[in-house]
Design goal:
The protein has about 280 residues and is mainly β. It has a single domain, classed as Neuraminidase. It contains one helix and 25 strands. It has a five-stranded antiparallel beta sheet with strand order 1-15-16-17-18, with no helix packed on it. A four-stranded antiparallel beta sheet has the order 2-25-24-23, with no helix packed on it. It has a four-stranded antiparallel beta sheet with strand order 3-4-5-6, with no helix packed on it.
């Protein structure tokens, strides 16, 4: 009965996700740190990206290499858009589900946040609603799961950040964000509402990773970190990779939402919801 009830709820309600964090030292959630916007988002063509057939608004990749995307076709007024898995460069839609943001576990299990901010986890057969609500979700190669909450805690930082403890969400103190990704060792990185990138260091301490103004962030199982530049609401912002403690612009690519494969290859969507990947 529990499985049948879960499937029924999933088919009616559906899914989504989304958000990140802010701060430095003992995260000053009201910090300005305007130097992070000194790198303007540069519009670039996707001349070096390999386009994958289909449309997508968000992408998530597991440490096992599983790639899932949120589409652009609305399938539920409360859930959001379709969810598909990438199989041999073809997007295969999953039935009876919808969302807006997505992340994938090391075992290839997608977690989604839907348009109603509800959180769901797939097991290959049906979707189970998890506790709480969120705006964004990130999963590390070690299995650590973090969400950006729906409660605003900082005018410049964004919303609360919580970690899954196996049965519920444990809220982190003195931090905020709007987008989130998780390193292989379970360390969360976030983009704050001010577009500053932060990495959790220890305790309640977060370090600003200056030099770029970001929109979204993705981290691969190999530790590769990529961000898309600040969204200007007009052109596609540039994509940057974190190399030797500096942000380096990736030539010939641009986009909005991003995730990274276990081998460090970025996958992203652009303003027209085209879906791309970059191979080394």
């Amino acid at each position: 009965m529990k499985k049948k009830l879960t499937i029924a709820i999933c088919a009616i309600i559906f899914f989504s996700a989304c958000t990140k964090e802010n701060n430095s030292t003992l995260i000053n959630t009201n910090s300005n740190l305007s130097d992070a916007s000194s790198f303007a988002s540069i519009s670039q063509p996707n001349s070096k990206g390999i386009q994958i057939k289909g449309k997508a608004s968000d992408v998530g990749i597991g440490a096992d290499g599983s790639v899932f995307v949120i589409g652009i076709d609305s399938v539920s007024p409360t859930g959001g858009f379709s969810i598909s898995k990438l199989v041999a460069d073809s997007l295969i839609k999953l039935p009876f589900c919808a969302g807006t943001r997505i992340a994938v576990s090391p075992a290839g299990i997608p977690w989604v946040i839907n348009k109603s901010h509800l959180i769901y986890k797939y097991n290959g057969y049906y979707w189970t609603q998890m506790p709480g609500t969120g705006n964004d979700i990130g999963i590390g190669a070690d299995g650590s799961v973090y969400i950006i909450g729906t409660d605003s805690v900082s005018a410049t930082g964004g919303n609360s950040i919580s970690k899954w403890n196996g049965s519920n969400w444990t809220k982190l103190a003195n931090c905020a964000g709007v987008k989130i990704a998780v390193a292989p060792d379970g360390t969360p990185w976030v983009v704050a509402k001010s577009n500053i990138v932060y990495r959790k260091t220890s305790g309640v301490l977060w370090t600003p990773i200056n030099g770029v103004s970001a929109n979204d962030i993705g981290i691969g199982a190999d530790g590769s970190v990529y961000v898309t530049g600040k969204d200007t609401k007009t052109n596609n912002p540039a994509i940057y990779k974190y190399v030797n403690n500096n942000w380096s612009s990736v030539s010939g690519v641009s986009g909005l939402s991003i995730a990274v494969s276990p081998k460090g290859n970025p996958y992203w969507t652009d303003r027209l919801n085209n879906f791309y990947k970059l191979t080394k």
